[in-house]
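ok so I'm stuck.
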Amino acid sequence: MKPRRIAGAAPKPRLLRVRRRPGAAAHLGLLSVGGGTFPCALGRTGLTRFKREGDGATPVGRFDLLVGRWRIDRILPPGGPLHFTPLRIDDGWCDDLGDGRYNRPVRLPFPGSHEVMRRDDHLYDVVIVLDANLRRRTIGRGSAIFFHLARNGFEATAGCVALAPADMRRVLARLGSRPVMVIG
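replied:
not stuck anymore, here's the structure
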């Protein structure tokens, strides 16, 4: 059975479009969704079609937004259609090229190279896992590509897409079900 649409109610968009900001530094972008456009930070070397581990670039492509995490001790749970779970103190993400858990969540302490998910800064107070080299994983094609909060001044990321905290809330509230991010 099809869901009933209320007359006059537009469906929520599920597509987020990310592109480089024209005339700006390579790490500055724009994210558009549902008629709104928001400044965002990209990887320090801009966008790439040939992502490699450690290149500092944001991969070009179409990526599902899979799951979200948030710092329960700092903010209220984000809204929107994604499933969010609290970040735990022992959450990490493997970026070790020689480990079978490459580009997968891990529990800390972890002996290989990894990223700590529960950070001291506020970047991962809201963090969403993108399906970038995740479901169809290739070792060395990039790990820990997330949609998260931006640093002040939209400093470059290591390859993620990042929004100001207030804009992240606005974007998540606008999204329809099964959102997808198109980068490039």
